[in-house]
Amino acid sequence: MRKTAISIAIAMSTGGAITPVFANDQAASIEKIEVTGSRIKRSDMETASPVTFIGADAIQASGAVSIDDVLQDITAAAGAMTNPGVNNGSGGNASINLRGLGAQRTLVLVNGRRMINSGTGAASTVDLNTIPVAMIKHIEVLKDGASAVYGTDAVAGVVNIILKDDFEGAELNVQTGLSGEGDAEQHNVDLTVGTSFDRGNMVFGIQYMERGSASQADRDFSSCPISEVDNGKSLTCGGSTITPNGHLYLENGKELQGDTDGNYAEYNPETDPYNYASDSYLYTPMQRLNLTGVLNYELGNNTNLFTEAMYSKRWSEQQMAPQPVWFDFTYTESMGDDLIEHGAEYGDTVHYRRRMSDTGTRDFSQVVDTVRTVVGVEGYLDNDWSWDVAVNFGRNDSVDQLSNLHNIGSLTEDIELGKFNPLDQSAWSADNMTDYLYTEQNTGGSQMLNFSASLAGEIMALPAGYLGFATGIEKRTEKAWYTPDSLTSQGLANDPKVEPTSGSYDVNEAFVEFAIPVLADVAFAQNLDLSAAVRAFDYSSFGSDSTWKLGFTWKLNEQLMFRGVKSTAFRAPTVDELYGGKSPSFEQISHPHLDSQAEVIVGGNANLTPEEADTLTFGLVYEPSFLEGLSLTLDYYDIAITNAISEVNNQYIIDNCVNSSGDLINQDSAMCSSANVQISNGKATFNNQLQNIGDETTQGYDINVAYAFDAAGLAWRAGWDTSILKERTITMAGETVDYTGLITSGLGGYADIKSSLSLSVKADKWGANYKVRYLSGMDSFSCLDNPTSCYAPSTPSVVYHDISGSYFVSDTVKLTGGINNLFDKQPPYYSGNNDSNTDPYTYDTLGRYVYAGLNIQF
To answer: What phi and psi, each to the nearest 5 degrees, are found at residue 27?
Structure first.
């Protein structure tokens, strides 16, 4: 049993709000299993790579009805992760970002096979909303590069979601919850039904979830966009310079602000900015339907047919302030003489900006359909080698709309023809604007078709055990597309035109993996095993290459084991990265003479080449004999990426291409020349398309302590999970920035320490869980050069407390409930923040959340 206990210790890196998962009984009954990170089935769970196991019970105890609620809380996650608190630009998606290296560098699998990229447009990452929580058996999170085993994208790690395939009976879950402020209500119902028959089994699940909204206006910390004045010594309610009733720039240098009565006065930067927060969501609404089916059917004594079918439909929404519009016109006598007293002359060019509060908020909505099916045959040869052949097909289709937009092309044409007077406030009324209003509708999607075949088994007996192997081939085709609205594609919606996306590529791959026993039952080596893998690939988009992995497990005795992996990894550019059309994105910047939002032109680059990475992990597992039930793991990781695909940091472009007076500088440099920064009336516009821009590295430690014991007639489980970040650097344009301990305006936060402590107790009729999540303080990236000019150049450490419990009314009925963020910890303000005066990628913006549920088994 000691061997099994150490195996479980390897898997005990549970994090965030996750209850520790213990599986001694299950592990003891398993003969051979396949653990994420290897294609070779083993008789235990001991592998060279660190793997976190999250069980269905832990998910249920957290109150999560979306899997991102669990995964985003693990301590190995960092950086920007889309979630319900991200209103601007999320598109309703949810993602996981291991090691803070970007969601695109975390591979998501379902039952060991690729999940289709999903979301709006030509998606580049997996939307976690497509995976039903109710059908999850457990999750395996591999915190190591695994390209040699799984191919592209497995640079930071792998999330492998294992679905229920042996469930019998029926289980119904109903759960409801809401925030402490009475908003963001969430309702969930799911039903799982399973049965076995003579030649197999099948499981079917259905889940429906509905989530309400919360407004930034309903929280003190987000009700108004905060501006810092007096060189960062005090705060005031700020906002956008694009305001209702018109903000005008005259040729004589004056700035004017209109009012509802049709008068114009000089613009006052202290009182006139527009509070755009009051019309923005703090927490975004969504409805989601998931249907899942798993079938296994025995075709013969050694042959089995397996199928998986998943369908999800998502309806999601975001809301932002009314559309900002801007254009130039020639001031004529027919427009009146309101500007004459301010020094304007007929014939002058007037630069006009307006916030279209006359016609209402910008309302974003998405309808996303995702389908994934797997059909395959697996079996065993006479020599006990296993084999399988499978087809994995996935498709994602999306329609996204944006309402309350204005056809500025038609509007400016009517101004030129004298049919519309922009200086007449009544002309902007909602009734008069109906001819210029429209709803933008875009369509997009992605598709994957993957043929695979594999063979695995034991080749020969060696003195220390059997030489195991796995080999296989894959052929995968991926395509994606995005068709923008016709007006948007022509640039008639005030924003620059958005170009369509369309493209595809195919890849042929072959891999081989070996598990090599070296020593067994000798001095200082109860077991010493080596592992090796290599994968060769040929992409139609860039050519061929290969990647490899070498690893070891060295078990000195029953108490102590060392492990390590050295590997190379790669990430091929996606269709969207290669062929994505140019489009505008409004991004936060900080500059004394420029508007806080810059118009950034983003898009793909057909000349991109793959990212490459070198990864190293080394660690130990210790289970002391003097304290039964205690296990400790310590792992070091080092990931170095070269040829990284990314955009240049927007603030970095501004800092290097615009001086403090607002004048362009360094225009001969490659970066500034490519960015082509343009400044007009305080508004910056520049290009920032994807490039292979340089290098990225990250290093750190993962520590896990797990303890299981019985006391006072109760079963207790405790877990402490900590990630320590030592380095997170990005090198571009010859300059290296270390983001360790920093929080940014768009890349999320990179805390030095993320930690979680969990304690659970179980009796015959009830159970209780308590969790503490810790996030160390961070310095604002925007304030590094001059912290004294910032009101809040850093954030304090943040601690969240969660409690949950369950009670068995009978053998088949269980009541559950809990409170997340028990003490209603508010997100911290920091200078140079992202949105809502904080960072919704990093902090809980919703506040205290209470939920209750009912579980019925029959």
So the answer is: -65, -35
Give the tokens for residue 636.
Answer: 């070091």
* Token output for 183: 């908003």
Residue 197 CB burial class (10 angstroms; 0-12, 13-18, ≥19): exposed
Task: Look at residue 658 in the predicted model and tell me its pLDDT.
Answer: 94
Helix boundaries (H) for 510-643:
575-579
Q: Quote the CA–CA distance of 306 and 297 in Å, as a whole number.
A: 6
For 311, counting Cβ atoms within 10 Å of its Cβ (0-12 exposed, 13-18 middle, 19+ buried), the class is middle
Question: CB atoms < 10 A from the CB of 280, how many?
Answer: 22
Q: Quickly list H helices, 637-684.
A: 650-657, 670-675
| Angle CA 445–450–451, to nearest 5 | 160
Q: Report the amino acid identity of residue 781.
A: F
Question: What is the identity of the amino acid at 39?
Answer: R
User: What is the reported pLDDT for 113?
Assistant: 96
* Spatial separation of the C-alpha atoms in residues 776 and 644, rounded to whole Å: 28
- 150: enclosing H helix or E strand: helix 147-150
Instruction: Yes or no: say if 754 and 775 are a contact pair by the CB < 8 Å rule.
Output: yes
Distance, in Å, from the CA atom of 699 to the CA atom of 562, rounded to the nearest integer, reads 19
Chain centroid to CA 463: how far? 47
pTM of the model: 0.90
Q: What is the mean predicted confidence (pLDDT) over 129-147?
A: 93
Give φ, ψ of 511 to 5 degrees: -140, 160
Assign residue 491 a region (left: φ > 0; alpha: ψ between -120 and 50; beta: otherwise).
Answer: left
Q: Are 685 and 598 in contact (CB under 8 A)?
A: yes
Whether the CB-CB separation of 616 and 566 falls below 8 Å is answered with yes
Whole-number Å distance between alpha carbons of 329 and 800 = 53
Nearest to 319 by CA among 234, 445, 404: 404
What is the distance between the alpha carbons of residues 390 and 375, in angstroms, rounded to a whole number? 6
For 779-814, the pLDDT digits (tens) are: 999 999 899 999 999 999 999 999 999 999 999 999
Q: Are 357 and 246 in contact (CB under 8 A)?
A: no
Structural contact between residues 630 and 716, judged by C-beta atoms closer than 8 angstroms: no
Residue 822 pLDDT > 80: yes
Q: How far is CA 66 from CA 89, 127, 210, 281, in A?
A: 20, 11, 11, 19
Residue type, 324: P
Q: Which residue reads 């910390």 in tokens?
A: 221
CA 329 remoteness from chain centre: 43
For the stretch 573-604, pLDDT in tens is 999 999 998 888 878 788 988 887 888 988 89
- Alpha carbons 17 and 74: distance in angstroms, whole number: 7
The Cα 853–Cα 858 span in angstroms is 17
Q: Is 656 helix (H, G, I), strand (E, B) or coil?
A: helix
Mean local confidence (pLDDT), 406-434 = 94
CA count, 13 A, side-chain hemisphere, 740 = 16
Is the separation of the CB atoms in 545 and 461 below 8 Å?
A: no
* Residue 260 burial (C-beta neighbours within 10 Å; 0-12, 13-18, 19+): exposed
- Decide: residue 168, CB within 10 A, 0-12 exposed, 13-18 middle, 19+ buried: exposed
Q: Return d(Cα 812, Cα 170) in angstroms, integer.
A: 10
Query: Phi and psi dihedrals of 96, rounded to 5?
Result: -120, 135
CA–CA dist 109, 36 (Å, integer) = 10
Question: Residue 492: its pLDDT value, please?
Answer: 72
* Dihedral, 418, 422, 423, 428 alpha carbons, nearest 10: 120
Handedness of CA 645, 538, 123, 118 (dihedral sign): negative
Separation in Å, CA 198 to CA 170, 174, 295, 388, 582: 19, 32, 13, 22, 56
Q: Are 660 and 590 in contact (CB under 8 A)?
A: no
Contacts of 547 (CB under 8 A, 6+ apart): 147, 148, 534, 535, 537, 567, 568, 569, 570
